[in-house]
Amino acid sequence: MVTARVDDRGRDLARSVAARVTDPEMPMLTLADLGVLRDVEETAERVVVTITPTYSGCPAMATMRDDLVHRLRDAGYADVEVRVSLSPAWSSDWISERGRRALVAHGISAPGAAPRHDGPVALSLLPTRRAVRCPRCDAPDVRLVSEYGATACKAVYACEGCLEVFDHVKEI
Amino acid sequence: MSEHDSVYDGLSGHDAPGDDSQWAFGTDFEDPLAGVDTTIPDGVDPAVLATYCLMLGDDALVHSHRLSQWTSRAPDLEDDIALANIALDLLGQARLLLARAAAADPAVVPVLPEGSPVPPEDALAFFRDTADFRNLRFLEPENGDFAETTLRLLVGAAHRLALLQRLATSRDPVLSAIAVKGVKEVTYHRDYAGRWVVTLAQGTAESRRRVVTALPRVWRHHAELFRSHPVEVAAAASGVGVDPATVEGEVGAVLDQVLAVAGLERPDVPAAGPMPGGGHGMGRDGRHTELLSRLLAEMQSVARAHPRGLW
Asked: Which intervals of the chain are annotated as region Disordered (chain B) (predicted)?
């Protein structure tokens, strides 16, 4: 509930401070770019920030929560509460266009469209086919090295053009 | 790179009184369900919902711990990381499910010494005895070699994925949300394991020999996956859970698909029977092999030695 004591400018400030907090593992992305930041609500007493986890066990969530609390405290908001929203589940489709450009600029391939899980999930015994291009030389000729990379959200590819190995943020 | 220049950054700046976000076990006390409405749906027995969540949560916790034992020991770096990532996904699911169990019925949470900072989901993971765990015995055996691990992961993931897909429509919105998220993760686990089973079975004579040897060992506990426990039946009847007997056909079809591509057949081995000691003799009743006791002894030792999180 927003009270009369809060003016529009104040509300915008809390939101913009929260939106500028970056992902601890992919610091070229803000939490807003990543689609993790779901809501920022300011009342007379406190700022309530709602975030959604990317993966169930993502260890970055605790750091995101701490960073949000500390950035907002630094901006003068004494009472900050971070809430979790589990539904709808995070999707890589929520990464913003700005975020996708920032990933590529840092040598990380951005995810394609997330798979839809409407009916039973089909088993796939062949390597996942994705239209991935090398984020460094833009060559389309790449090969999957591992479906799992340095973090749960990334797969590892190698470019057959420039031979660089690179991370690809997985579609989920 | 302004705010994460140093790995020690998280240790400073916690000057607010009562800030318990850094503690001895290395994580913090962020409530995984902070702000989530944990009201129990009408007509659902809180004890049934809590016990049902413990079953799914304990499956994830035990399997996660077993897979984490591969860390630094897998055949190559990629698979070391893959198994660690799968273990992490399952640990995350376990944490949410144990937290949901604790919120549904606080009576399931062990009572710790006054002043202990341990949150409910950690109390459930680290301070319950073997007989209080509700996981399937299927998940308890030691890893064996990489072939045995991938076979167990294939069967376990196929079973879990089928359950989670149905739980997406659970009447409990918390369980439903955990399941929807879990489906995305376990889909990767099942594909990863399935591909490795085919690769090993169609690889060298030695890799095939290993799969053929491991299959009957994994299959001994296969029937347990689809045996209905009264709590699962009650949870299904009230619309929050799934009776595992209803997923046997679907899981079997997936496993047969992998076995066919791999050139393997379902092994003809006697199924492990009920354990003595009461109840229905199932893992779901808390009747376990001694392997679980050993696993828990290792997993719980640090937390139990320092229940206040201080040393």
From this structure: 1-24
